[in-house]
Amino acid sequence: MKWRAHLFIGVACGAFAAFLLRFPLPDAAVFCAISAASSLLPDLDIRNSKASQAAYAVALLALLAAAYFLSFAKGGGWREFALSFIAILCVLAALDLLIRPRHRGTMHGAPFALAAAAVCYAVFGALASGAFLLGYLSHLAADATH
């Protein structure tokens, strides 16, 4: 299924749940946004998915920030920045190659969704965790239909 379809289903499920639970408009908007974003997450196991592309962009920004703080913030220069950047990039690339699960493997199951929702609950609370779980499970349900 295409990413747009998963995104639409995630938003629709979030909006329907927010309507049923009678959330005020700001909470409903946040709930829908989290549900929509999490509906794309099971496809992180595909390197060219929209979720992976977004994760790569975030990782690049984090990589640049880490290299900066490891070099310039400690009084180093461009040489230290370049060395830090290359070292962190190699570690991240190795982790991506070694740890990424196969498609429709671990990340496409309810146990992973529940574990991720539990972490989300511990960090962000019930609203975010419920929206996350709903969006994630909407992806799994949509994939099960074909």
How many structural domains are formed by the residues? 1
The count of β-strands is 0
| Radius of gyration based on Cα positions | 18 Å
Shape: globular
* Biggest sheet record: none
Derived from helix and strand composition plus strand pairing, the structural class reads mainly alpha
Q: Overall pLDDT, averaged?
A: 88
CA(first)-CA(last) distance: 8 Å
* Order of H and E elements: HHHHHH
Strand-residue fraction?
A: under 5%
Q: Helix count?
A: 6
State the helical fraction.
over 70%
Poorly predicted runs of 5 or more residues: none
Write the layout of secondary structure elements.
Elements: H1 3-20, H2 25-38, H3 50-71, H4 78-99, H5 110-124, H6 126-144
